[in-house]
Amino acid sequence: MSPLVSRLLLVEDDEDDYILARDYIEQFSTLAFEIDWVTNQQDALAKMAENRHDICLLDYQLGAENGLTVLKLGIEAGFTSPIIMLTGQADEEVDMAALDAGAVDYIIKSELSSSRFARAIRYALARREIEKERVDRLKAEAENRSKDRFLAHLSHELRTPLTSILGYTELLMDSKVGQSAQSELSIVLNNSKHLLSLLNNMLDLSKIAADKLELNLSEVNLDAMIADVYALMTIPATDKGLTLTVSSATPLPLKITTDATRFRQVLINLISNAIKFTEKGNVDVNLWSENRDETDYLYFTVVDTGIGIPKNQIGCIFKPFEQVADVVSRNQGGSGLGLAICNELVSKMGGEVSLTSEFGKGSCFTAYIETGDVSQVPYEVLKFDSKPLMAKEVNNQSYQGKVLVVDDVNDIRMLVGHMLSGMGLHVEYGKNGLEALDKINDARNESAPYDLVLIDIHMPVMDGSEAIKHIRSNGIDTPIVAMTAATMKGVRDQLIYQGFTNVIEKPINPESLMVVLGTYLQPGTAEKRLSPDDNQIELSNTTEPSEQHILLVEDDADAADITALLLENLGVDVHIAHSGEECLAVFSQRNDWSKVLMDLNLPDANGLKLAKELRKNAPQLEMVLLSGEEPDSAEMADADISKFILKPINKQVLTDLVKG
Ligand code: ADP
């Protein structure tokens, strides 16, 4: 292999020395040079300013000029490659001065014939290579960082207009005008929701790329979580006529340590894909636990009988934006981001995802995650394979009454609420035991108690068991039904003993729900809703006027209008400010604000700084930050803001806020 040619600048006023140096350099066996020779300071500096050479040999004595000056001026002029100083004789002081001024080495001219000369040049070039790699790496990192910032910024910016699209569509769907265009509006709504999930995926990916995605580990009840995922996924599976089973052949640890949200995201993604790419047959999820090298892992496979993935594409579908180029998958929509995110999340959780597939026959995704130590927790076999009937398939039974549904998982709340409202019931929601307690007490004080409460057992803030203690000790005898995965023997008896009226097993299906409703509620006489929908439930609840005065600070006029409309719909008195300046002016008009909703990025102010400013005159006031990206928690704490709403804002979020 012919050696790579390096460009060498030789600054030497003595022709004999130049020839000598050149001859030795040309004798190097592994290095080849293209030599530029200059004899004075002026020419040397001109060449050095070009910064084209890979190395420079610089004579210390350039006639009347001092090589050290050339050295310093050359570096100042922008020469970044290594410089080796050539000196007439050994002089420690001169050598040190050369190194101090930025030379990488020095050579006494009598050493030009020695191996020391060749070595010095080789080292200098190697150093340059390392430095170049370092600079290239830094450049690439900076580019990546700016790309990630751009992505984060973009998805943030897109959230604000999405607020208007989603908000107005929801509002229209509930209005008389919208009744005749329900199917068109639901297309707009579905597409906006799809856009939102794309944005969330992009945000996840940019966080992963910037290494900013942090896991939130906590103890998770595996049975309850799997039951929830099963309940959610049976809807699309049943819609396509597929059978979904989730089971474990061997007992599973009922408590694991993981990031519940992220783990759920991975499971839902793999199961949704399996459903999406399967036209008939089954989707089967199997789980098992393993201990390897003193670490506990949870394994799961998602097996489908769908279109499968061609062998040559198996490797790439875990990369962002990769989809199998196939008519069917193209018809299915999607962005090709889901699996890339799953892959990253699972590896963050200490595991891996892998795939086997036979094109035309089906796919099998296998993944595992670390679970923390599960040696001391109870184990149980899980099995969910009943084919739950969806609300629309259940006979037209209807009930009357007011039901409170309490679950920390939004989708499950909505799912159960959807089934109940489909049966003609008036539904309200709570996210945890504490909210349930407040709502039940308020309802009783307003002489409009709930007819039935359905409450999840495992919830943050206050769990179901704690809530029932308080509820019953307040003398409330409303029927309260626990929703639980209840796989362990004796759980049911224990819950009844705690004060629950009954227990309904998760995953909840309409059949078992109807058995419970039939026991505690009166059959309905009222006509059923034409199209039961969560939004309608909320709207019908929300007409009582409230005394709340909310200041909404949002610079985007459309987003401000729809948020205000939704709030007014909840009976709130809303005042809008579009800038920091306007905010201060409006704020000073009254001193009985209930809340301030503050956009993070305003044209003339930063929401957090503005909040601090308002705080000076209203230390107790509740302030809520609105933003398209998660704000820095330390900065939020500094501005004394504890609540934050991620855009796009919807009715459910605002309802929770106003009622909360
Ligand atoms: P999306 O589904 O949004 O396109 P994913 O990253 O989740 O993105 O999946 C990437 C691609 O992998 C899909 O578009 C599809 O072509 C293929 N794929 C994923 N899961 C399956 C499956 N179970 N069966 C067949 N193809 C699949």
TrEMBL record:
It holds the Pfam family HATPase_c. This is histidine kinase. Residues 7-124, 402-521, 549-660 form the Response regulatory domain. Residues 153-373 form the Histidine kinase domain. It catalyses: ATP + protein L-histidine = ADP + protein N-phospho-L-histidine. Keywords: Kinase, Phosphoprotein, Transferase. It comes from the Bacteria.
